[in-house]
Design a protein that fits this description.
This protein has about 475 residues and is of the alpha/beta class. The chain is built from 17 helices and eleven strands. A five-stranded parallel beta sheet has the order 3-2-1-4-5, with helices on both faces. It has a two-stranded antiparallel sheet with strand order 6-7. Strands 8-9 form a two-stranded antiparallel sheet. About 30% of the residues are buried.
């Protein structure tokens, strides 16, 4: 396409990544060989060492490319970028170690050089990528690397694009015009030219100003649609189309030839299919067993405290639904006083003479200060320790570590006709809704967030949610 700014940025990243990794291993060599005077098992000259890494570092760069570290949209996904840098660096060091053993060739003069190299390379790569990101946004601010875009159509997607792309300093785009009615834009966007037709836009703007075209709706006649696509191809402009039924194109999409000749688009309810499901299940089992082993002393202490201060059943069971509308019993540490556990909340509040709480709970299903909760239960809830027994549910296969909230059957009404989509994956101990506000958001907003997770699942998204969950727990943000 006409715009080369993304290509130049990626070339800059490749060069910077190369020298960041190379510098990391030079520093590792200096620390272990030059500054550390302990015994070296495999003496290796500095020039030979550096020459070897000049040839081996491209393996890291190739690995980075394979896992998507040079995709254009990665600049908007900071956590994903850092996670991929870590994984890519780890695989890269394993490949170099494997190369050394496989060919019986000395690469590292000492084992610590490999360890130092991995640590320093990851740190330098994150530092370089941070600088590169800031440099790119600075160039946007001074007008360099901006891609001019013409938006064709008058839909909700048009309005969203105008809102998100209007600030060139952050989006990297400049809207040079909109093809559609003149009365559909917010007054703050009056500076954007509006054209009645695509032909008029091309005539007024000229081919040099239209580097990218985004079409947000199809015209009734195929000639107009073909004209726009043909114009983009003829003038080497980037072309994107946003379908009117956007829900059709979320989740896992595959383009294939049906009966060997007809191109078709296959749309799955969720990307969590095939190998993704297997990897997620193995991750769930491994991490759950590990966490249970680590937390076993804490679990024992909690059980003892509960038996001392509020004797009764340790585990609270409640019927929930998970994938394919399968019912199961979710396990939690009991946090309510024994006499109220398992009883109807509204009736419990009325028995206390607290009709105000009964009315409040009937409306929101949540209370800030719930008198049914025991003292030890308050502490357990504050740090989400009541969720620990759900790790057993994960190991059993009832739920996953990350997923939509496990709802009781009565709550499916809040998802309306989307309940089957929600239940196309296993529910989870934590999820995107919990780290986006937890109990501070209403049912309908939570339903939207859960459905977004189902349709946009990725392993990186799961890792992001798990790390954010830890932050929420320790900051007590949104504590129940």
């Amino acid at each position: 396409m006409k715009s080369n700014s993304s290509l130049l940025y990626n070339v800059f990243l490749i060069i910077g990544d190369f020298f960041s990794v190379l510098l990391a291993f030079v520093v590792a060599y200096i620390l272990r060989v030059s500054l550390d005077h302990s015994h070296i098992y495999h003496p290796l000259g500095a020039s030979t060492y550096i020459q070897a890494f000049f040839l081996l570092v491209p393996i890291w760069i190739l690995m980075f490319a394979l896992i998507g570290l040079y995709k254009n949209d990665l600049i908007e996904k900071r956590f994903t970028e850092i996670g991929k840098l870590f994984i890519g660096s780890f695989i890269g060091i394993l490949l170099i170690i494997g190369y050394s053993y496989g060919l019986n060739q000395t690469i590292f003069p000492a084992h610590l050089v490999a360890v130092y190299g991995f640590i320093f390379s990851f740190a330098l790569l994150v530092g370089f990528r941070t600088i590169a990101r800031r440099l790119k946004f600075h160039l946007y601010k001074i007008g360099y690397g901006i891609t001019s875009v013409l938006i064709v159509g008058n839909t909700d997607a048009t309005h969203y694009l105008v809102e998100s792309l209007f600030d060139s300093a952050t989006s990297g785009y400049k809207i040079v015009g909109i093809v559609g009615p003149k009365d559909h834009l917010n007054s703050k966007f009056n500076s954007i030219p509006v054209f009645e037709s695509f032909d008029l836009a091309c005539e007024k703007l000229g081919t040099d100003k239209i580097r990218s075209i985004i079409q947000t709706e199809l015209y009734s006649g195929p000639l107009k649609n073909n004209q726009i696509l043909s114009y983009a191809q003829t003038n080497h402009s980037a072309y994107r189309f946003i379908p009117g039924n956007t829900e059709l194109f979320v989740g896992n999409i595959e383009v294939e030839l049906f009966r060997s000749s007809v191109p078709v688009i296959s749309v799955h309810q969720t990307p969590l299919v095939g190998w993704g499901r297997i990897a997620k299940r193995l991750f769930d089992i491994s991490l759950s067993i590990l966490v249970l082993a680590i937390l076993s002393p804490l679990i024992l202490i909690l059980i003892i405290l509960m038996l001392i201060f509020d004797p009764g059943p340790i585990i609270f069971r409640q019927k929930r639904v998970t994938r394919f509308n399968t019912a199961f019993n979710v396990y939690k540490f009991r946090t309510m006083k024994r006499k109220y556990s398992g009883h109807d909340p509204v009736e419990a509040f009325k028995s206390m003479g607290r009709n105000d709480l009964a009315e409040a709970f009937a409306g929101s299903k949540k209370l800030t200060d719930d008198p049914r909760i025991s003292k030890i239960g308050e502490i357990i809830r504050r740090y989400s320790l009541d969720e620990i027994p759900q790790l057993i549910n994960v190991i059993k296969g009832d739920i996953s570590l990350v997923g939509p909230r496990a709802v009781v059957p009565e709550e499916l009404k809040y998802y309306k006709d989307k309940s089957s989509l929600l239940l196309s994956v296993k529910t989870g101990i934590t999820g995107l809704a919990q780290v986006s506000g937890r109990s501070n958001i209403d049912y309908y907003e939570r339903a939207k967030i859960d459905l977004y997770y189902v349709q946009n699942w990725s392993f990186w998204l799961d890792l992001t949610i798990l790390f954010k969950t830890l932050r929420v727990i320790f900051s007590r943000d949104g504590a129940r």
